[in-house]
Design brief:
The protein has 149 residues and is mainly alpha-helical. The chain has seven helices and two strands; from the N terminus they run ααββααααα. The longest helix has 24 residues.
Length: 149
């Protein structure tokens, strides 16, 4: 069981528990690959530098939109395992407010125990993707604020 000072949002909690229940790295990878099938098609026009996650060996793109104070993410990667990590984060973080996303600690990544079976560069990329999604959530929040002029 994962314990944190701040409770995880329900969708993210379910995903963390799912990965905690499996100790076999192969099964974890299979689940990541299954998650990729649930991602909607990522628009080619969104594969621009502004949406590219820095610090990833793979090509990873993330977009965020805000509607009714809830963030919706889209993402893609050219590597299937990394795309599964993107899918996990999208499923766990979409429909949260920018503040809820900003307040999340990356501790849940360790709780999935995925970082143990990932290569060091992929584990680092997992954290980079999460931090980029936090940044995107904050950016779309400020982009939707009414101007004070």
């Amino acid at each position: 069981m994962f314990y944190s000072s701040t409770p995880l949002p329900p969708a993210l909690e379910r995903l963390v528990q799912r990965f905690q229940q499996t100790s076999d790295p192969k099964r974890k990878y299979e689940h990541l690959l299954w998650l990729t099938k649930r991602l909607p098609e990522f628009p080619a026009a969104a594969k621009i530098a502004n949406n590219k996650v820095p610090g990833c060996v793979s090509q990873v793109y993330i977009t965020a939109t805000l509607e009714d104070d809830k963030v919706t993410f889209q993402g893609d990667s050219d590597a299937q395992i990394t795309k599964g990590l993107v899918a996990l984060l999208i499923e766990g973080l979409s429909s949260l407010s920018p503040l809820e996303i900003q307040d999340l600690s990356p501790d849940f990544i360790t709780a999935t125990r995925l970082d143990v079976s990932l290569t060091p560069s992929r584990a680092n990329g997992f954290y980079n993707i999460f931090q980029f999604m936090q940044h995107k959530a904050t950016t779309c929040q400020f982009a939707n604020m009414p101007s004070m002029s």
